[in-house]
Amino acid sequence: MPQTITTHVADLVAEAEREIETLPVEAAIALHGRDDVVFVDLRDPRELDREGRVPGAFHCPRGMLEFWIDDKSPYHKAVFAQDKRFVFFCAAGARSALSTQAAQRMGLKPVAHVAGGFGAWKTAGGPVEFKV
């Protein structure tokens, strides 16, 4: 019997965006480089190699986010224990909206995500670097 999907990813993203802060890309670019802000890149490593990176962003593959945030997890990363603002982004904004919602529900705060993701960042002239 075929599966019947009743909730679509667009519905999940729309629900997340009603609960979280979404930063216009220009506002996100203005936050870049501040000591009290951590940019979190959720993209796959192949995307980073192909498209470039936001300088100074912490890379957290989407599949590890909840495990790295949770201080009781054996996979916890200390970056998520800092008293800073966390700004999540992915390629276009859907994964980061879902990630921001999950992080917020776990208690990480303050958190936001970048509208349009890395694609919008590049289009708006945000700084980009390539790993050599």
UniProtKB/TrEMBL annotation:
Gene3D superfamilies in the cross-refs: Rhodanese-like domain
An example Gene Ontology molecular-function term: thiosulfate-cyanide sulfurtransferase activity
Pfam family, one: Rhodanese
Rhodanese domain residues: 33-130
SMART domains in the record: RHOD
InterPro entries for the chain: Rhodanese-like_dom (IPR001763), Rhodanese-like_dom_sf (IPR036873)
Superkingdom to which the source organism belongs: Bacteria
PANTHER family referenced in this protein's UniProt entry, alphabetically: THIOSULFATE SULFURTRANSFERASE PSPE (PTHR44086:SF13), THIOSULFATE SULFURTRANSFERASE RDL2, MITOCHONDRIAL-RELATED (PTHR44086)
Name of the protein in question: Rhodanese
Biological source species: Rhodoplanes roseus
